[in-house]
Request: fold
Amino acid sequence: MTICVKHLGGRLPVSEIVFVRSLISIVLTLTSLKRLGISPAGKRKGLLLVRGVLGTVALLCFFEALSHLPLAAATILQYTYPTFAALAAWLLLGEKVRKRVGFAVILGWLGIVLVVQPEWMGSGVTGLPISIVLIALAGALFTALAYVSVRELSRSEHPLVIVYYFPLVSIPITLPFLWQHGSWPLAGEWIWLLGVGLLTQLGQVWLTTGLKLLPTAQATSINYVQVLFASLWGVLFFLEPFDGWMAMGAICVLGATLISLSARQSATTTPQGSTQG
Reply:
């Protein structure tokens, strides 16, 4: 998804990318719900709408950061969200953060720093536009809150219903911006827009299912492995370097993932096993 957004090159406004992504998502999700015979209405409509708002704001902030920052810098700022998620789940859901999971979060964050260090340490984070940095960090915070709400909603809602409320909310939010600042996509841009929609849909469905099966801190710390993918795509598509610092970071990220997996409690082997604490 991030590669598709980067390839759009910032010519299209972020609200338009989110709008098109939401149109694709709502069509795919409604089709799947109809095929499974599941009502899209949901049981906890208020929290579902809140989840949609949180996710929309998070995606707008992240896409804005991707449009103005190097991929590595945008990635490290976005991937501060597992720490936010662990703290939010502890404060809002009462989930205990096991020592190994907490260590995995710290180790994973260290790995992210090492992976992206060659890209921005020359001038430091202060060399980046402070307004965009704050937008990126806001995106990480809203991402964490959205994941915590997904974790809570998974107690009563089907994953596809949770996913459905994201485009249901994001379409009316982004439509006014599209009306004012929209630009008709060029022929090649339609391909990347389609990629954003399809790839994000797959990620949303699988991530929502994962948050139903695992505690928030553990599930989101596993997501650190995406940084490895981002680094690989950076080398392949944007000719970004891969050196010893990145290799060390990759080891830290993989270690964080393995530690998080080893900390899985037997109570989480069923969908509702960890929702009573």
The radius of gyration is 18 Å.
